[in-house]
Amino acid sequence: MSRIHTRDVLCRKTILTAAEAGCPCCDAVLETANHLFFGCPFAVQFWRSIGVSPNEAVVGSLHRLDVSPAVGDASPASFVLLCCWRLWKRRNAVVFREDPQSLVATLKACRDEAVLWRARLKVADRSHIDVWLSVLRNRGEIV
Question: What are the residue boundaries of the structural domains of the chain, listed by start?
Answer without folding.
Answer: 34-142
